[in-house]
Automatic annotation (TrEMBL), chains A, B:
SUPFAM superfamilies: Thioredoxin-like. Gene3D superfamilies: Glutaredoxin. This is Metal-binding protein. It comes from Methylobacterium frigidaeris. It comes from the Bacteria.
Amino acid sequence: MSEQIPSDICTLYVCTTCRDAADPGEGPRAGARLHDALAAALADRPEARVRIEPVECLSVCKRPCTVAVSSPGRWTYVYGDLDPAVSAAVILDGIGLYAGTPDGIVPWRERPQEFRKGVVARIPPAPVLP
Amino acid sequence: MSEQIPSDICTLYVCTTCRDAADPGEGPRAGARLHDALAAALADRPEARVRIEPVECLSVCKRPCTVAVSSPGRWTYVYGDLDPAVSAAVILDGIGLYAGTPDGIVPWRERPQEFRKGVVARIPPAPVLP
C-alpha cells in the first residue's frame, strides 16, 4: 500500500463479509452493517484519531462480526462476536482507551466487556525496520 | 521496540504460554515446547529468512498451540491448534510459501492443511507511514 498515514492514527479494520445467522438473504451483510454503523459513529467524533478500513475477510468467520485495531508501535487486537446494531459506540470507546496507551495494552478491568469476551487474538507491535 | 530488522525477514511469533490439556504439571508448557522445536528446526534451515520471537500470550488460549507470522507489506496470519511434537517443520514450510508471495496470501490449495484448518485470523498489511 502506498497510502500515507500519520503515525498517531489507529486503523480499525472491519470485516464486511461477516454474515450473521439472522441475516436476510437480501441486503447488506452484518459485517457491512457494522462498517456503516462505525463510519456513522466516527463521523460524530471528529476528534478521534481513527481511520476505518473495510476488509473483505479477516478469517474469523465463526465469530461474526469481526474487527481488528492496529497502530504503529502498539499491539494489534482482533475482536469477534460484535453486534452491528449496538457495538459501534463501544468499539470506538475501546479504541480511544487503546490509543491512550503507549503499547496498546489497556488494563483488563478497563476494557469494555465486548473486548474482554470477544478477543480473538493479539499480535505484538511490528519490529522497527531500518 | 528499537531492534533493527531487515525488511525481507518474516517474524514468527510463538506463544510460549499455551498449555495443552495433556501437559504435565511440571516441565515446559506445550507452547514453550513448540518454540523450542521451531528454533531447532530453523537452525537446520540457515537459508530461511525467519526470526522467531517468543510471546507471553497471543490471546488465542482456547486453541493451543498458537503462532502468528508477520512481514512488512504482507498480511499477518494467526494460526492455532498446532502440535509441538510434529508441527515445526510444516510451520516453517508454510512460512516459506508465505515469504514467496508479494502480499503473504498463499493460494488456498497450496497451504498446509495445518494452516487451512488452524487459521484464527488475518490482518491486512500495515499502511505506509510518512
